[in-house]
Design brief:
The complex is a heterotrimer. Chain A is an alpha+beta fold. Chain A has nine helices and seven strands; from the N terminus they run ββαβββββαααααααα. The longest helix of chain A has 21 residues. In chain B, strands 1, 2, 6, 7, 8, 9 and 17 form a seven-stranded mixed β-sheet that branches. Chain B has a five-stranded mixed β-sheet with strand order 18-16-10-21-22. The chains are: A alpha+beta, B alpha/beta, C mainly alpha.
Chain lengths: 242, 583, 117
């Protein structure tokens, strides 16, 4: 057996969150999500949390496990000796128990215009040509599952809520780097704003906690360089059209 | 009750729902589109699909062959006019996705790459590494963000359709964060709510696949078609049930029993092909129903590998080499290591068949229309039918796109020919009353977890890969009993904010309805075809059963089962031959 | 009714994980480097005020406190440089970019040290 200490919050009965302890079976192939499911099924059906795929691709089950942002479906009980503290993802308001309000992220994602703005019109018959090397340039940034662990790890986002944040910037960068895309200028206003990349001081925590190895910190620094070059080009050599 | 006005309400924001929304927004920017989903779109289970999406694109392939593979793969239960439409639209939709920026994997010359897949004579499965569904979903979701006319209602659980004057006029939904109910008055509704694999205990499906969309239509009087056809994917992880893509075998992986034998050759899928050089449509690239059934037989013979999670077979990919695995199957390697402690580069991975897909669903015609005017359905929740008795891998991701768009066009046409006719307010109030009654119920004798456990056990025991008359009879009785006991369910959580006890209770209700349709349809189909195999009726019976089952809701009782002939055009029912001999 | 709870942020985040402490150490180095820069400006001023002022400045530099502070500053500056050089490939994913930074550092250091001694 092992113990979970879970942060609970129900606005209808609680003024503020409180911890509740549960004893759950210890199985060496179980993840925290399995333990939570056991709690809900056998001990306390009132516990609320998000989950779906149980294979780290849907991004639903992000939460704090012993103070670190993790996907509950990939946090193995065998890696946590002692009582396991489970809390909702940090830096987001708590809706109920382990469910957070993610409106801020969803809005920011839309603001970076994460869709293809084609450089050229689509070929009349067939696909845009894109070599494996061109695909590689943006592939890793397209792997983001929108789990928001990076937002929970980022102290800038915690201190400056207006900050665009790692995932949104990484996804904007993903499109900037797609060989088919010509929308860098259109995304510039959001990405190169103060609340865009310039609120980042390269703590690098985002890339450390990212379960998909997107490396949003790299994306942000690359956007910093690109937008700086763009700025100088626009001001010193405005006759040069991109 | 707060009312939201829309032209079209779409239930479900996965691949099919998003595709429909985009099609509507592009067709007419003035349309008000309400995209209603119980989860945020990027959580939809489309994200878990791995292998790819089929569409004829290479010069050595032809529409004719895609047609034949699909119809044969479906054991001739597919409606051939629908398959014809599907295979023609398939390449156009996959190209459209590419034009929207989908990161399809590429050949060296920059053209899209295709890979081999089960049951397909030619390579026509477009893929994005082994996360094709994930990339398709995110491409669609991100593309949808550019259309201001698509208004999203994330984490709204639709409880009932509003039906007035014999037409669908909208729906009622719970706003999950507040527990408040809202009515959506719409001129047309498209259901794209996905399948119901969670009615089984071992499934690749995520928590959300509980058949809510199917139940919505079913309770509004639309039949559920071919529900008995439940697909088992041969290679799920024994520990979690999660999916290892068919592409493992497409790239050359092989299946072994405890004696190290590639046993599929003993079940009509031989002769054994050379290691690492798979031949299409034979051995490990046979169709899913045959491969899963072969495992069942091996298990009975005592040839299965014993693991602590039960019996399994071995998926051996060692000969593919680390480079290929990292490049084409990175998620597979990650999952095998994390959840099984096995590295496919150095060891064979234990796998077993798990429930994966429902060929059956909401009865629609070739234009995605249901029998209820104003109601359309697309994706796994619908049954057109293009997949017949057994779906070929990589046809379903394409199906989302083709019929998502088709449903949108049909809804558009319907609205052009019909004036809006909102339902009376009392209907929505009645719907709210039903939820209130459940929430406030006291003195109940049942719990969500208790009833669900019994349902799962029944389905596993009696509605598995091989079924029998006695077993199905027991399942029908049991599910009828669970349906009655469901009315005495009492919630532990009676609060309003994000109440997942309530949500799970409603999802259980959906699953019970769908499960009853499955077992009643299965009991009535006295033959074996595709994924529906009966020990007491082992042969296919085209004379009596070249027909679709139709399960119709009968309030307070078991569904009524009816039949409709399959549309046959140019492919007469033949023998499904997956032996290498005919190649 | 929905009533989300916002957890207050305090500076305890610095101690939540070693990576945050390492980050703060890197950032903290700017205090020492900035302070050293001010000292150099002060030295320039002393130089402009004639040989006596300059000698007094050199005496100050040779004091034990000054030596200790200089060693500390050198340590922080080195830590800062090493962490930044190691992070450079993220911002500029070019081959051997970190090695190039170290090489350039080495070359410049040799030139400066030769000029000083």
């Amino acid at each position: 057996m092992t113990q979970l200490e879970v942060l609970r919050y129900n606005p209808e009965t609680d003024q503020e969150p409180r911890f509740q302890r549960y004893e759950v079976p210890f199985r060496d192939d179980w993840v925290v999500l399995d333990a939570l499911n056991h709690v809900k099924e056998a001990l306390d059906p009132t516990l609320s949390y998000r989950w779906s795929c149980h294979m780290a691709v849907c991004g639903s089950c992000g939460m704090m496990v012993n103070g670190e942002p993790k996907l509950a479906c990939k946090a193995f009980l065998r890696d946590y000796p002692g009582v396991i503290r489970v809390e909702p993802l940090r830096h987001f308001p708590i809706e109920r128990d382990l469910v957070t309000v993610i409106d801020d992220f969803v809005a920011k994602l839309a603001r970076v215009k994460p869709w293809l703005m084609p450089k050229e019109p689509a070929p009349a018959a067939g696909e845009y040509q894109q070599t494996p090397a061109q695909l590689k340039r943006y592939k890793q940034f397209s792997m983001c599952i929108n789990c928001m662990l990076c937002y929970a790890a980022c102290p800038e986002y915690g201190l400056i809520p207006e900050y665009l944040g790692p995932a949104a910037i990484a996804l904007g960068h993903r499109w900037n780097r797609d060989s088919r895309d010509g929308g860098r200028e259109a995304r510039q206003q959001e990405l190169a704003a103060k609340e865009g990349v310039w609120d980042c001081t390269f703590v690098g925590a985002c890339s450390e906690v990212c379960p998909e190895h997107v490396d949003p910190a790299a994306a942000i620094q690359q956007v910093k360089i690109e937008s700086t070059v763009d700025w100088y080009q626009a001001h010193l050599m405005p006759w040069l059209k991109k | 009750m707060e009312s939201i006005l829309a032209d079209v309400a779409i239930v479900g924001a996965g691949g099919a729902g998003l595709r429909a929304a985009i099609a509507l927004a592009q067709a007419d920017p003035a349309l008000r589109i309400a995209l209603v989903s119980k989860v945020y779109p990027m959580r939809s289970h489309t994200c878990a699909a791995e292998g790819g999406a089929a569409g004829v694109i290479k010069p050595d392939d032809s529409l004719e062959q895609h047609f034949d593979d699909t119809v044969g793969g479906g054991d001739w239960l597919s409606d051939q006019d629908a398959v014809d439409y599907f295979i023609r639209e398939a390449p156009k939709e996959l190209l459209q996705l590419e034009h929207w920026g989908c990161p399809w994997s590429r050949a060296a010359d920059g053209s899209v790459a295709v890979r081999p897949f089960g049951g397909m004579k030619k390579q026509r499965t477009w893929f994005a590494a082994d996360k094709s569904g994930f990339h398709i979903l995110h491409t669609l979701f991100q593309t949808s963000l550019q259309f201001p006319s698509i208004e999203r209602f994330d984490e709204y659980y639709a409880t009932e359709l509003l039906v007035a004057d014999g037409r669908c006029a909208g729906l009622v939904a719970i706003e999950m964060r507040s527990g408040q109910m809202r009515r959506f008055d719409a001129r047309a509704v498209i259901i794209a709510g996905g399948g119901a694999g969670r009615m089984f205990p071992f499934t690749t499906n995520g928590a959300i696949k509980t058949g809510d969309g199917m139940a919505l239509a079913y309770r509004a009087g639309v039949a559920l078609k071919d529900m008995e056809f439940v697909q088992y994917h041969p290679t799920g992880l024994p520990s979690t049930g999660t999916l290892l893509t068919e592409a493992c075998r497409g790239e050359g992986g092989v299946l072994l029993n405890r004696n190290g034998r590639r046993f599929l050759q003993d079940y009509g899928m031989g002769p054994e092909t050379p290691l690492g050089r798979p031949v299409l449509k034979t051995m490990e690239l046979g169709p899913r129903d045959r491969v899963s059934q072969a495992f069942w037989h091996e298990q009975k013979k005592g040839n299965a590998v014993s693991t602590r999670w039960g019996d399994a077979m071995l998926l051996d990919m060692r000969h593919l080499g680390e480079k290929t695995i990292n490049e084409r199957l990175p998620l597979v390697r990650d999952m095998s290591i994390s959840y099984m402690g096995v590295d496919p580069v150095t060891d064979p991975v234990p796998v077993r068949p798990v429930v994966h897909y429902m060929m059956g669903g909401i009865d629609t015609d070739i234009s995605a229309a249901t029998s209820l005017p104003g109601l359309y359905a697309a994706g796994e929740c619908a049954c057109v039918s293009i997949n017949g008795a057994n779906r070929l891998g990589s046809n379903s991701l394409t199906e989302l796109l083709v019929f998502g768009r088709r449903a949108a066009l049909s809804a558009l046409e319907y609205m052009g020919n019909n004036k809006p006719a909102p339902a009376p307010a009392s209907l929505a109030e009645d719907a709210r009353g039903r939820i209130r009654e459940l929430m406030q119920r006291t003195g109940g004798t049942e719990t969500v977890a208790g009833l669900r456990k019994e349902m799962l056990r029944t389905m596993e025991e009696h509605a598995g890969i091989y079924r029998s008359g006695d077993g199905l009879g027991a399942a029908c009785a049991k599910l009828g009993e669970l349906r009655r006991r469901y009315r005495r369910l009492e919630l532990h959580d009676k609060t309003n904010v994000y109440n997942t006890d309530l949500l799970q209770a409603l999802e259980l209700g959906s699953m019970l309805d769908c499960a009853e349709a499955v077992v009643q349809s299965a009991a009535a189909r006295k033959e074996s075809r595709g994924a529906h195999q009966r020990l007491d009726f082992p042969q296919r019976d085209d004379r009596s059963f070249l027909r679709h089952s139709l399960a119709s809701y009968d309030a307070g009782g078991a569904p009524r089962i009816g039949y409709r002939d399959v549309v046959i055009t140019r492919s007469q029912p033949g023998v499904r031959d997956y032996s290498g001999a005919h190649a | 009714m929905s009533k989300p709870y916002v957890r207050p942020i305090t500076s305890e985040w610095i101690f939540r994980h070693p990576r945050y402490l390492r980050y703060m150490a890197r950032e903290f180095s700017c205090l020492f480097i900035g302070g050293w820069t001010v000292l150099m400006v002060w030295g320039l001023k002393q130089l402009s005020e004639g040989p006596l002022a300059w000698q007094a400045f050199l005496e100050l530099l040779r004091s034990p406190a000054s030596i200790a502070l200089h060693l500390l500053t050198l340590a922080f500056a080195t830590y800062h440089s090493i962490t930044w050089f190691n992070l450079t490939p993220k911002a500029l994913p070019l081959p051997f970019i970190a090695a190039a930074h170290y090489a350039l550092w080495g070359v410049v250091s040799v030139i400066v040290l030769r000029a000083a001694f």
